[in-house]
Amino acid sequence: MSINERYDKVVAWLTDNELWEAFGSSALRVIMFLAIGRLIVWIIHKTIDRVILERESKRPANHTRRMTTVGKLMKNVASYVVYFITVMLVLSEFGINLGPLLAGAGVLGLAIGFGAQSLVKDIITGFFIVLEDQFAVGDVIQTGQFKGTVEVIGLRTTRIQSWTGEVHIVPNGMINEVTNYSINNSVAVIDISIAFEEEVDRALEVIRHTMITMQDENLINSPEVLGIQTIAPTGVTIRVVAECRPNTHPIVSRKLNMVIKKSLDANGIEIPYPRMVTYQRNEKGGVKDGA
Question: Which domain of life does the UniProt lineage start with (predicted)?
Fold first, then answer.
């Protein structure tokens, strides 16, 4: 082929209207794909920001940092997914066959899924623990046989320290049921037993007066005296309940027991104690009572 023929062929190719129309149409579609992808990412980011702000307003200040981290993670995942789809659409405009690429990606994902099932399960469970705000660092929780304060929440494991000092590292995939003791207020329940011979009305009045004057930073409201809980052969049990801050009921219970004990002692009200009754025969064969 001569130089003139090559030149004429190039000129004919450059002046081909159908070619330029197809190129312009593809370019417009590519621009449209990019613009729509960018718009979708912007809408998703704004939606995530709104959801995160609503959740932050309902959580304590020390938990907002974790919610912000979740928001960034969700934004990144959404951006990667949208951009991946956009790139696939752009490549299809240039005539690239996407079948082998998608098939290769599917096989790779399937191999990773089968080879690391437990790892994938731990990561997915950890993500939803953070996303659903099931518990936070500093909360006292119980999962299975482990109970304690949450020290670290990771995407793969959660670290829990028990009140006796042991540290339990639990894979997130094993966390099926969780009891969180740090969300709502707790209730301290105190049962006080007094001797059967004591006047119940007087004991109730003394305990009520003591509870009204009770002051503690962990109390939400003044403790309430419910009344007689049980009656036993040697005594009567009076129940007192107190609403307190989350997971502070053991501390409040101990303090209330101490205050009530001192108040009963100050008013001469005795608690039940073991008693034994004996019978003695007199010289005439009769029975003489004794204690």
Answer: Bacteria
Q: What is the CATH number of the domain that holds 144?
A: 2.30.30.60
Q: Would the CA dihedral through 243, 244, 246, 250 be positive or negative?
A: negative
Please give the sequence-ordered ranges of beta strands (E in DSSP) within the chain, or none if there are none. 140-143, 146-153, 157-161, 167-171, 179-180, 186-195, 224-231, 235-244, 278-281, 287-290
Answer yes or no: is 77 within a domain: yes
Domain that holds residue 62: 3-115
How many domains, the chain?
Answer: 3
On the question of pLDDT at 290 being above 70, the answer is: no
pTM of this prediction exceeds 0.70: no
DSSP for residue 172: G
CA pair distance 103, 58, nearest whole angstrom: 44
Check pLDDT > 60 for residue 156.
Answer: yes
Q: How far apart are CA 126 and CA 173, in angstroms?
A: 8
CATH number of the CATH domain containing 254? 3.30.70.100
